[in-house]
Amino acid sequence: MSDHEFGNVSTDLKLSLVEAYLKAFTTALRPQFPELWYIDAFAGTGERVIKQTAVPADLMPGQAEKIERRRGSAQIALDIRPAFDRIVFMEKKKSYCSALERLKEQYPGRNIDIVRGDANAAIEAEIQAMKWVGKRAVMFLDPYGMAVNWTTLERIRKTEAIDVWYLVSLAGLFRQATRDPEKLDDSKRVAITRMLGTDEWIEAWYNRPKKEDLLGEYDDVYQRVADVEAIESFVGKRLKSLFPAVLPPKRLKNANGAPMFSLFLAISNPAGKAIGLATKIGNSILKA
Ligand SMILES: C[S@@+](CC[C@H](N)C(=O)[O-])C[C@H]1O[C@@H](n2cnc3c(N)ncnc32)[C@H](O)[C@@H]1O
User: Fold this and answer.
1) Sites in the chain below the pLDDT cut of 50
2) Does any ligand 1 atom lie closer than 6 A to the CB of residue 147?
3) Residue 175 to residues 184, 222, 264: CA-CA distances in angstroms?
4) Quick count: other Cβ atoms within 10 Å of Cβ 261?
5) Are 161 and 137 in contact (CB under 8 A)?
6) Are strands 135-141 and 210-213 parallel, antiparallel or unpaired?
7) Is residue 56 assigned to a domain?
8) Atom of ligand 1 nearest to the CA of 41
9) Is residue 218, in this structure, part of any structural domain at all?
10) 258: in domain
11) Rounded distance, CA 211 to CA 197, Å?
12) 162, β-bridge pairs
């Protein structure tokens, strides 16, 4: 089975923002660059399956479960015109890679590579193997959780050729950074530090607020005081410390309105012209 069932209304929004950027990117850069690439590091299957809850059989006999198939990021990228010259799909799951192979067959003549494995290792290998002069690329980092290592972002930044759409899991960070520091075990600390490339988040998110009573100042409970806003802002500052430009993100919520992700656009090319163009396109999409 390779059906990839995921997402909600925010997923549609996320994919429509990335699609709008991809279209504008190839339209603007096609005349200047012979090699435009798209790298989807958490590619999925190319489609998204949405199952509608079936009506109970005793109420509506014979009524089948309704399955809707929508395009995922991989297929969206393949459909972009002007077309990308090369497309790289990275995906950890074997059955999803097989689905991507079948998708590839529907686009004969296109230069499509499918790399099976962990995205961090695959990006490292891809970047290592390539000369980036004369090329421009868009990369989409769309993990479920906190799978992107900071060292991977450092590698991407060094190319000076890649614009990255990075879906940051606010819910993942919020959950791992437990309010009670006693519950913040080593595995949680390591996961957050691996993602953010620093342990300064501990100092920034936890504090020992001072309180005063008649006897003077005393320490209140030691706990996480950073809310989702502060966590998103910390991530933004970290990205800005690495990339020449990072746009204000789009916050994505779940069906109950709880913030789940922040979608960032980071630009690795330090040239003013590249930053200007990517910022203009990105802002027009993110603010729309
Ligand atoms: C949110 S889904 C991506 C959806 C895709 N962008 C789309 O629009 O169809 C995340 C994908 O990443 C894959 N994945 C999870 N961990 C991974 C890793 N470390 N490296 C590469 N792929 C991974 C999952 O199997 C899943 O297909």
Assistant:
1) none
2) yes
3) 10, 17, 20
4) 25
5) yes
6) unpaired
7) no
8) 21
9) no
10) yes
11) 33
12) 137
Residue 126 CA, ligand 1 centroid: distance in Å: 17
Distance separating alpha carbons of residues 288 and 282, to the nearest angstrom:
10
Q: Quick one: tokens of 26?
A: 């190839």
| Distance of CA 144 from the midpoint of ligand 1 (Å) | 7
Identify the pLDDT of residue 48: 92
Residues 178-216: tens digit of each pLDDT: 999 999 999 999 999 999 999 999 999 998 666 777 767
Q: Do residues 3 and 98 touch, judged by C-beta distance below 8 A? A: no
pLDDT (tens digit, 9 = 90+) per residue, 107-131? 999 999 999 999 999 999 999 988 8
The enclosing domain of 121 has a CATH number of 3.40.50.150
Percentages of the chain per state (helix, strand, coil), in multiples of 5 = 40, 25, 35
Residues present in the chain in total: 288
Ligand 1 geometric centre to CA of 223 (Å): 33
Domain count, the chain: 1
CB atoms within 10 A of CB 47: 18
Residues 228 and 115: their CA atoms lie apart, in Å, by 34
DSSP annotation of 237: H
Task: Please check whether residue 143 lies inside any domain of the structure.
Answer: yes
Question: Strands 250-253 and 223-224, how do they pair?
Answer: unpaired
Residue with tokens 């012209």: 273
Nearest to 233 by CA among 271, 207, 259: 259
118 C-beta closer than 6 A to ligand 1: yes
Q: Which residue range forms the structural domain that includes residue 142?
A: 9-51+65-179+244-286
